[in-house]
Amino acid sequence: MRIKIRKIMLVTLLVFFYMLSVPQAQTIVNPDSSLQIILNDLKGTQISLLQSQEYAKENSTSVKQAEAVYLASLGVLRRERGVFDPEFFLSFNYEDQKIPTASFFSGATVLSTQQTNTSTGLRLNLPIGTNLELSLNSTKLKTNSQFAFLNPEYDAFGAITLRQPLLTGFTASARKDLKQAELNVESSKAQYDQEIFKTNSTVEEAYWNLYAAERDYAVQKLTLERAEAVLKEAQLREQAGLVGPNQVANAKTFWAQQRLLLIDREEELDNLSDQLAVLIGKRPGSGSARFLTIDDPPANFPIEPLDGLIEYVLKNNLELQAAQKSVEIADALVNASVWQSLPRVDLVGSLTSNGLGGTSQDVIFAEDTLRSSSGGSFGDVLSQVFKRKFPGWTIGVEISIPIGLRSGLGENDRLEAGSLSAQQSYIELSLLLEKQVRTSYRELLHGNERLEVARDGVDAAQEQVRIGMIEFQNGRLSAFELVRLSEDFAVAQQRYSLALVKTVKAAADLKQLTSGYYPSVEKQ
Are residues 257 and 186 in the same domain? Predict the structure, then answer.
């Protein structure tokens, strides 16, 4: 009997000294400091939100793809502008022929000729559809014919030719490809800039998800430490005969559940770190398994009028502007196709100038000796051309009428349908953006209230656990009931983390939707 009494007294003393242990008191009474200690002990590579966004801008595949599309559009614009650049041309052709003849007037039994043809000049397409060509052509002819008055003979002529489409030309159709390229550049630039905002928002959301996962892990580890404390105390109280084995079993079951949940939380933490690493294109430092956040979410954000935000988004969202450019491109092609479906009527004209020269030869015909008075060097021939000593000009109209006009009208119908589709896509995007703004705005509007309520829930759960621990130690509360209070505290902490992150993510979404207009806390 004395041995049994001594055993009970010994166990009671052990429970008493265990209750006085400082770490346990800190774990129960001051969970915030305990959470911070656990967070500080986490191993990994620390990274800030700004660093994450900078890495993403440098390495994000979606940003690089948008940049590639933008650069390609610049290349197309340069190509289409080049269509209206002057074009220099030059051709040279040498011909050597020996032709048998049967006519006396050929001047030789076998006529031998060496002829050199050259052509040079400039071509130019104007944005109104005009085709201009300035050319200079020359021919040098040497022959063995006895009847050649000039040998070698130089011929030259210059011409300025013009072709102006009267119906299918002018700016509507002639500039359609250039207009499309210009609008494509504006559209792809807007999409590229918006993709940067989108990437920043996506990275920010992933960053705060990782932040919440770290808090959840710390809460779970703290819950596990409480489960261990409850289990140890239940075992000691069982040894003292103060509780039955069922309470020890309850405490042990709770401890096992929390141990499994901690493993799950750690896996979730690593998975979210991997997601952030994929987004920013960078892995944690050598020897580190994960990234760790170092920034804290802002406590509150400025609330602006909803109607003003929606109006701003509909006017300035870069993705919506890109969609508007698509509508303008479709309309430009429709406008051009109207002109191109008409009959083709071209005004054609030219100004010409001719010159002739060469080395004069005596030509004996019967008993007469004849000689040309048109001799002169090649320079003299060019002088005749440039001075328009022998001018000429032409003017005319060419008309081409497709019977039925079905090809042009069918293309016009197709492009009008494309324009209608682009307009509907623009309207659909406008409605979707407005819906997203309203959703994010509501989450932001209730953010402060949500955080306050969640914080109150944490405080209340913390107080429940504190009181419950006292009652458990005094034998007025079972281990099962204390376990339920600890679970409530863990859930309250997780809800607080969720509320904290949800508000920040809503602000990030608004910043993306307004293409960077929505002010951050740092700007206030």
Answer: yes
Residue 363, in any domain of the structure: yes
Structure tokens belonging to residue 365:
């015909």
> Is the bond into 152 cis (omega within 30 degrees of 0)?
yes
**185 touches 391 (CB < 8 A):** no
Q: How many residues does the chain have?
A: 524
Q: At what angle do helices 447-473 and 406-445 cross, to 10 degrees?
A: 40
321 and 227 part of one domain: yes
Output Rg (C-alpha) for the chain, integer angstroms.
45
pLDDT score of 469: 74
Q: Are residues 369 and 427 in the same domain?
A: no
Only one residue has tokens 């920010």, namely 204
Distance of CA 61 to the CA centre of its chain: 9
Which residue in the block uniquely carries the two structure tokens 């083709």? 344
pLDDT of residue 343: 86
pTM: 0.77
> How far apart are alpha carbons 226 and 31 in whole angstroms?
10
| Structure tokens that stand for 333 in this block | 């092609």
Calpha distance 254→484 (Å, rounded): 9
Q: Which domain holds residue 374?
A: 89-125+130-168+345-400
* Residue 103: pLDDT over 80: no
**Tally of structural domains, the chain:** 2
Q: What is the mean pLDDT of residues 288-297?
A: 88
**What number of other Cβ atoms are within 10 A of residue 78's Cβ?**
11
Asked if residue 210 is part of any domain, the answer here is yes
Beta bridge partners of residue 137, listed in sequence order:
119, 157
* Nearest-angstrom CA–CA distance, 331 and 422: 9
